[in-house]
# Entry
Amino acid sequence: MKKIHLSVLTLKLLAGSMLFGLAMCVINSLISYTEFKKQVEGLYSTVTEQFAETAVSYVVPERIFTWLTEGSDGYWDSTNARLNELTETARLSFIYLTVVSRDYKNRTYVFDTVHSEVIANPYPLGYVESLEKKTPDYIDNLRNIIEKGMRVHSYFSYKKDGGHVTTSIPVRDFTGTVVGIMSVVKPMTEIAEYKTNYLRSLLIFALSFTIFFIALYIICLITGLIKPLMLIIDETSHFAEHHGELSGELKKIKNHDELGLLSRSVEKMSVDMNKYISDLTHATAEKERIGAELNVATKIQAEMLPRVFPPYKNHPEIELFATMDPAKEVGGDFYDFFMVDDDHFAVVVADVSGKGVPAALFMVIAKTLLKEASYRFKTPAEIFWHVNNMLCENNESGLFVTAWMGILEISTGKLTFANAGHTMPVIKQNGQVSFLKSKPNLMLAAMESVPYNNHEVLFNEGDKLFVYTDGVTEAMNAKNELYGENRLLETMNRAQGKNPKEVLEFVRKDIDKFVDKSEQFDDITMLGMVLKAKEGGSKMNEMKITAEDENMDKVNEFIHSCLPADCTDIILNKIDLAVEEIFVNIAHYAYNPETGDAWISASFIDNVLTIVFRDKGKEFNPIAKKDPDITLSAEEREIGGLGIFLTKKFMDSVDYEYKDNFNILTIKKTIV
# Structure
């Protein structure tokens, strides 16, 4: 086994070293050759540019047009001879002067000289060459020379002759106008041998240095790494085969590097392993005992939460379902619901910080205090204030509770709720699903004497409520993506038409599909509720209408639709008078001189008609005004006040409050 491991490890390390060395050799050679080539091409560009400038100095630009129109003359002949002489002397392949047409479709040759060693015939004066088959880059170069006065260098490589460089510069007349292009072509064959020799010398030097480096590196690698490493491998095999015992061979390693540290660590591991085996045996027995106790705790916690659905047979208008799935054996989430009295139904969903047994114990305390306080205080804000102070006492563990609590007044459908740092519930009203938004207050048990605020929403027949803990929106998949509030709203939209139990099952399946096989890190608690029509013909509804006199008939029709069919004309007339008085007052005075909206809700439960008027107009309490003295004659009485007086006489109760920028007037009438 030692030889096999040694040969495999050595082969991998040596092969890696050789490949790395060869790669560095090739890379360095390519970089050097590329730089050499760049320098040579730059030199050729400079030289050919100088030749082109010399050629331009031989030409009189102002005579170019004359030569093209009238033909050659003595001056053209002498200039052509001088260009030929420059071509031969400088060993250039070509020198040619051309004039490009304005549309860049052809060019006309003025001069064209060819070296005697080049197999080609020069173009005569006036020869026109088509440019339509040239590449776009070639045409762009011509544009740059003529329109921008640039100097262009082009390199062409051939396998046989080594290639050449072409340099083109503008030819300007005395006004500075570009009237032609002077091009010089110089072969690069003379440097082909220099490039070959340079590349050969470079490769020989780089290869020699690489071989020397690899040989030196292999010697250091075997003596300093492979031998000590193989000794450690053999010793760990002995360690595994002899139940944590070592042979003592590791003491031969005297290294003061990571290998020496590794050998000392293996020796220490032998000692620690024997102790660990002993501790593990004891811990396994203890874990089995704790597991049995946690199973009992899980059962107890589940039995503490309400599990009877539907909750109350005498209140079939309340349909509700709830679940709590702890991330561990026991969790800190909880839900609760109960009747505070015959007309008020309380719902609580809360989440204790932390997980496991401490959170579960704190959950028991919080749940008990919340339910006990609900029978002593009327609103969720008062309940939270009391429970918060109780939980803050002796809270040395620093745990806290986020909670959402709502109390539904069944007769009117008014849901009063408070939020102690909890997630926003989802509400479905008028077919629209949205978050029941409110500014959350501080969580419970965080700070003493913290004020909490009540919020209200009118719950109508068919409206649904979904309360949950952050384990829903913070469920995470393998990509570390959160389930999130937007995905929850989409799921709730797709769950319309389902009862609370089906909604919760639908949401849980969507969460499981999203997280796939990822572990559940937080408790998941959900509660769904829907308000149904009460048996016996009860009705509950709400309308929003512009507060104008012409909408009075619509308001009456709305109120009549909520009344029983056998309502007498006498009672109906009294209700109509009260409704008209209140609505007309809103239309005339609430938004004067502008117009605004009025919200009217009506419910008929247990033979009691309840009508609530709300507007955002000026704050005004109509029932605060003193009742008129009806014993006085009409001339002696003050004007106004009789309508609200009759309203108070005809109705069983008339109440006013100004809350959240709303005037709220509630009238009630018992109809037998």
User: Anything to note?
Assistant: The two ends are 101 Å apart (CA to CA). The longest helix spans residues 2-57. The chain is about 45% helix and 20% strand. Residues 1-5 have pLDDT under 50 and may be disordered.
